[in-house]
Sequence to fold (177 residues):
Amino acid sequence: MRRVYNAAYALLEEQGINSIPIKVREIAEKLGIKVKVTDLGSEVSGVLLLDDNDPIIGVSNLEGPERQRFSIAHEIAHYRLHSKDVDVDQKMFVDKKNMKVMFRKQDFSQREFRREREANAFAAALLMPEQNLFEDVKAVYNDNPNLTDEKLIYELASLYEVSGLAMSYRLSNLGFV
Ligand SMILES: [Zn+2]
Fold:
């Protein structure tokens, strides 16, 4: 996933962004992607529509702001990493709320599985960049690191405007927990 993380950091650098919380909607708009919070039904959390030169990200109005931010970051990942695959003639990415359900489906191909994992990793890196997180973990936990303390995980999560779950996965992936 290092390649994917680096792609996220490259995008932040490209746009000169280094402060928290990451303004993910602005990132999309600077890439020329319109973002709409809209009714996507009860099962879909986010979509990326690649219509000619007018890409659109749709996020569900039923989700909370943290989930919406993650969905926007996830769709930016599809745009940056997957929309220009020469062997892919895909005009639309649709993300369901419960991806685990999708993963069990037989028709969920190996490539789609990989792409979803990459989009989630990219989104996590974009919203919770390693460098910021290392500094903030040090600041929040002081000299008494207790990374199983949920209160502290939520404190970090609210700093980054991500869900507690997303933060705790990220801390775990970076080897903090
Ligand atoms: Zn996806």
